[in-house]
Amino acid sequence: MYKEIYLKLCKCTDVNFSLGVSVISMWIFRIVCSYILVMVLDMDVLGVWIGMFVDWYARAAAYLVRYLSGRWKKHRMI
């Protein structure tokens, strides 16, 4: 479902939103969360793995909110 919504948002030239969510989510959730889990909580590789999943769920939630809001429909299709 996450990939399906992502592709629909990209096809309707809503790429700036998709790119922004990807970059911000990667830095906030994947990198910072992984750093905290590995360095502070000493979780090793499991901490990185959990950080990646947190990132994927955050992206999926952002894309789902954008999809359900219908704002992506205002852009023209390619």
Automatic annotation (TrEMBL):
<feature type="transmembrane region" description="Helical">
    <location>
        <begin position="21"/>
        <end position="41"/>
    </location>
</feature>
<protein>
    <recommendedName>
        <fullName>MATE family efflux transporter</fullName>
    </recommendedName>
</protein>
<keyword id="KW-1133">Transmembrane helix</keyword>
<keyword id="KW-0472">Membrane</keyword>
<feature type="transmembrane region" description="Helical">
    <location>
        <begin position="47"/>
        <end position="68"/>
    </location>
</feature>
<keyword id="KW-0812">Transmembrane</keyword>
